[in-house]
Design a protein that fits this description.
Distance between the termini of chain A: 58 Å
Distance between the termini of chain B: 74 Å
Oligomer: heterodimer
Order of helices and strands of chain B: HEHHEEHHHHHHHHHHHHHHEEHHEEHEE
Strand content of chain A: 15-25%
Largest sheet of chain A: 6 strands, mixed
Number of strands of chain A: 13
Radius of gyration of chain A: 38 Å
Structural class of chain A: alpha/beta
Helix content of chain A: 40-55%
Structural class of chain B: alpha/beta
Order of helices and strands of chain A: EHHEEEEHHEHHEEHEEHHEHEHEH
Strand order of the largest sheet of chain B: 6-7-8-9
CATH topology of the largest domain in chain A: Rossmann fold
Number of helices of chain B: 20
Largest sheet of chain B: 4 strands, mixed
CATH superfamily of the largest domain in chain A: von Willebrand factor, type A domain
Shape of chain B: globular
Number of helices of chain A: 12
């Protein structure tokens, strides 16, 4: 008797996916908070990874009746190396008759009591989008990985009825009818000519005429038996998936790091940059990100410095725009790169600098730029920079967008025009 | 000993190699008269192993968020490399199903086959608790029934409503088993047939609580002893299923399903040391026998022994890895020791175990395997030699004294105390709080009173408030917990008011 061995590796996987999504649904509040923290920690370009999330263990505990500390307990332990009967020992610190687990923090900063697990990319994006209040259609577009585009590629002989190409099919059918019926038709014409000739000399009931007529009738029947259209005449439009044209884009992130930009504002700015990155990532094969921060002078920095450092002092916005213009000119010729600009600021600027900003954008940045978006993270009155930019928006709708932002949910409208423009193309 | 042709070597496994190993291990097991169910080997991926893990190893299970939580936790630990996945999951069914994970090497697969398909399998078939409580041929059917039923309820009443009931039931799971009664057999057809009937009948029974006859005013004094239930009931879930006034029929059925499945797993919790030790003993013995016959290579044995020693290692109490006594270590050592007592007893063994010293070890093994659970197995068979080997000692922690006391160590005067103490440690009755349904105020507000009988003055843990919340959700009226004091009176320790008068369903 041999044992039965069943290979189940290719059976249904993800049996737990229902349970998993129920878990996430149930603790959405806590998970969302953890995701918000995680977004603070991760880089803009890492947005598409899954994420390790910790949520407070107490919230998700499954309670049971247990013994609490206290009372009389006896425990048997192995490995006695020093005790003999009757010894009295001090209680080990922290442990009152059991393991005293009081939330020690581990080096990674997540409390040991936290329940830690990994969200998949999809789950992570889902929660990220939730916060930004993205419309569903846009969410789907962003979350979908489609590097392919369906294009027409001639015709095939098989397919679904909706794809039948009538012109081709009928042309094929006509050709076939001519080809198949050709010899008969020629013979028919010859016989008819012969009949006409005979009829001039012979009566209708002459045996030769009768024979010819019978022959003609037979050929006609044969020609009529050739089907008008046959299954192998059918031609279908063929569509194949080809990779999207590979293009590259560069995204400039311009951030005001003057003293008035606090952590909360920076966090909103970061989400704004992330969303732009995510959107660009859908449309371009390769994306470069350039980080420019500025107060009175601008500098190009790496991502870490971009979000963490904080300077004090005044603000000269044009310094950043000037630097962007220079970098574009040096490294990103607009014939090879799609250029996107995203600027976040609290709206403070030297008064006489704002007109210069508008001029810079209008004359040297917008001409080579696909899109420039500006968000102002503030609750105060709009200042002169906003006023100047309003003029730009009026002059360049669809390429320049601006928005005042109080919460993350306000970010999306900045992209609305951009999405509207792109959506028909992607779908 | 007759030399046998060597079995396939190397670390890559193939289906043929597994079949060859299984045949050889089976032959040796038959030589030892090891009797199990027929078995079936299923090869699964790591991901599927985690799936199975999340639902307590069963191939079918109803859906619940807590299984998702376990899955995520397992996945996370596995990805981080903190935990090798279980070598094996074995399902107590007939035929017995043993899972092999495709990432394992060939020696590991052989180890798992010997451990699960022969070791655990024979334990499931032989041990009296499993025989009594679990019907191996019906469990899968019952789980299928449970899954369908709960999915149907979710469709009809919404996921959230079902989840609420399941949460509450899970919270009461370890006070939802019959500890002393025998269980009836489960079967899918019977279950489905009887379910409708039961629904109607139960509802009729419950309505007794709703009886609104005019109160007997003449009978002024009520007797304190008139309680419902007349005897305290230890199985809370059973009591709720039969008596909770506000539950709808489908909710009762869900309670019943959780209770039944909980009951099914109860023997596993009672026989962990014995069962794991038994399986370890047999994989060790079977593979060593094959090695002695010349069928296994030295490389195979080295890999096998490394895994084996990892599993049966017992860190001492002061080690950073110490987390109580390792059931694998204790069980394996006890079964080995038992064989030694039978085969080469010394004077001490003859004094302690006169009835088994020098007896046929296989017969003694069968007897011990069939008729004991952890508690009684340790009380019966833990030998002084093993206590010395483990260097066991007991520590008394009495919160009324400021120091811990070492009560007994592995010496002549301590053996019996040690053994008694260790056995008690495996008594589920003393590990978990003893709570019973004490009274339902039938004539008043229909409130339910549980009574906690403290063991060694141990109080209830803080989680009882959360559990009480769940209990109130099932019962629908006020619930409270009393603690039995030394003079036999109840002292109220927690109460959850619930004034819901909504009459649902009926």
């Amino acid at each position: 008797m041999t044992v039965r061995i069943v290979d189940r590796r290719f059976d249904s996987k993800n049996k737990s996916s229902v349970n998993r999504s129920r878990f996430i649904r149930r603790f959405k509040g806590q998970i969302r908070k953890a995701v918000a923290e995680a977004i603070g920690k991760r880089g803009i370009r890492d947005i598409e990874r899954g994420e390790k999330i910790g949520i407070p263990g107490g919230d998700i505990a499954e309670p049971q009746f247990t013994h609490g500390p206290g009372g009389v307990r006896r425990s048997v332990n192995p490995g006695n190396d020093r005790f003999s009967t009757g010894d009295r020992i001090d209680r080990p610190p922290g442990a009152a008759g059991g393991q005293g687990g009081s939330g020690q923090a581990s080096p990674e900063g997540e409390s040991l009591d936290d329940f830690v697990f990994t969200l998949t990319r999809d789950e992570f994006l889902d929660i990220f989008f939730d916060e930004l209040a993205l419309p569903n259609l846009v969410k789907r577009q962003l979350a979908r990985i489609d590097e392919y585009k369906r294009v027409r590629a001639g015709y095939t002989q098989s397919g679904v009825p909706t794809n039948i190409n009538l012109g081709r099919t009928m042309r094929g059918a006509a050709g076939r009818r001519i080809a198949v019926g050709g010899p008969h038709a020629a013979q028919l014409r010859a016989l008819e000519a012969e009949l006409r000739e005979l009829r001039e000399t012979r009566p209708e009931d002459d045996p030769e005429v009768v024979r010819l007529r019978r022959e003609i009738a037979r050929l006609r029947a044969r020609l009529e038996a050739i089907p008008f259209i046959d299954t192998f005449d059918l031609r279908y439009n063929n569509r194949i998936r080809v990779p999207q044209p590979t293009t590259q884009a560069v995204m400039f992130c311009l951030l005001d790091v003057s003293g008035s930009m606090d952590e909360a504002r920076k966090s909103i700015a970061k989400r704004f940059f992330m969303l732009l990155y995510l959107f660009l990532n859908r449309n371009y094969e390769h994306i470069e990100v350039v980080f420019i921060r500025h107060h009175t002078v601008a500098s190009e920095v790496d991502e870490e410095d971009f979000f963490t450092s904080r300077e004090s002092g005044g603000t000269v916005v044009s310094s950043a725009l000037e630097l962007m213009r220079r970098i574009v000119a040096e490294r990103f010729p607009s014939s090879l790169w799609n250029i996107y600009g995203a600027q976040a600021s609290d709206g403070d600027n030297w008064n006489d600098d704002s007109p210069r900003c508008r001029e810079l954008i209008e004359s040297s940045i917008l001409p080579c730029c696909q899109y420039f978006a500006y968000i102002e993270i503030t609750e105060g009155e709009p200042q002169n920079l906003w006023r100047e930019y309003e003029k730009l928006q009026a002059a360049h709708p669809g390429r320049f967008a601006m928005q005042r932002i109080g919460t993350p949910a306000d970010i999306y409208p900045v992209f609305r025009d951009l999405f509207r423009q792109r959506l028909p193309e992607v779908s | 000993m007759r030399k046998r042709p060597p079995l396939p070597a190397g670390s890559e496994w193939s289906v043929e190699a597994i079949a060859a190993y299984d045949a050889e291990i089976g032959r040796v097991a038959a030589g030892y008269r090891l009797d199990g169910y027929r078995h079936q080997i299923e090869i699964i991926s790591a991901e599927q192993m985690m799936d199975a893990y999340a639902s307590i190893g069963m191939p079918v299970y109803y859906n619940h968020w807590s299984f998702g939580k376990h899955f995520l936790a397992t996945e996370n630990r596995y990805r981080r490399g903190q935990m090798g996945l279980a070598y094996e999951i074995v399902i107590n069914s007939d035929p017995c199903i043993a899972y092999l994970m495709d990432e394992n090497t060939l020696p590991m697969q052989a180890l798992v086959i010997a451990h699960a398909a022969y070791g655990h399998n024979s334990f499931f078939k032989g041990n009296h608790l499993f025989k009594q409580w679990t019907s191996a041929d019906a469990i899968i059917d019952y789980l299928v029934f449970a899954r369908h039923y709960i999915a149907e309820c979710e469709e009809r009443h919404g996921v959230e409503a079902v989840e609420r009931i399941l949460d509450a039931c899970h919270a009461l799971l370890n006070v939802g088993v019959d500890r002393y009664k025998r269980s009836p057999k489960l079967s899918l057809s019977k279950e489905t047939l009887r379910q409708k009937e039961r629904e109607a009948y139960l509802q009729a029974q419950v309505n007794d609580l709703w009886r609104t006859l005019p109160p007997h005013l003449e009978r002024a004094e009520r007797h304190e002893e008139e309680r419902f239930p007349p005897e305290p009931e230890e199985n809370l879930l059973y009591f709720i299923e039969k008596n909770a006034p506000l539950l709808e029929p489908w909710q009762r059925e869900v309670v019943r399903i959780v209770r039944k499945i909980g009951q099914y797993f109860y023997p596993q919790r009672q026989t962990q040391v014995m069962n794991e030790g038994w399986a370890c003993f047999w994989h060790y013995t079977l593979l060593n026998t094959l090695y002695d016959e010349g069928a296994l290579s030295d490389g195979f044995m080295l890999e096998f022994l490394q895994s084996h020693t990892n599993v049966v290692y017992q860190p001492p109490y002061h080690s950073p890895w110490y987390s109580g006594i390792n059931p694998y270590a204790l069980g394996f050592a006890m079964w080995r020791d038992l064989r030694r007592i039978c085969e080469t007893p010394d004077a001490e063994d003859r004094a302690w175990f006169p009835e088994i010293a020098g007896s046929d070890w296989r017969e003694t093994f069968e007897f011990a395997m069939q008729n004991f659970k952890d508690e009684s197995f340790i009380a019966q068979y833990l030998s002084p030699r093993l206590m010395r080997e483990f260097r066991l000692f007991t520590v008394l922690d009495d919160d009324s004294r400021d120091k811990l006391e070492v009560e007994a160590i592995h010496d002549e005067s301590g053996y019996r105390a040690l053994r008694r103490q260790l056995a008690e440690q495996y008594d589920l009755g003393s590990r978990e709080p003893n709570l019973q349904v004490w009274n339902v105020d039938l004539r008043g507000d229909r409130s339910l009173t549980l009574r906690h009988f403290p063991h060694q003055r141990r109080p209830l843990g803080d989680s009882h408030l959360a559990v009480l919340e769940h209990l109130a959700c099932l019962w629908g009226f006020t619930v409270r917990i009393e603690e039995q004091t030394a003079d036999g009176q109840g002292r109220l320790i927690a109460e959850r008011k619930c004034e819901k008068r909504r009459r649902t369903g009926t």
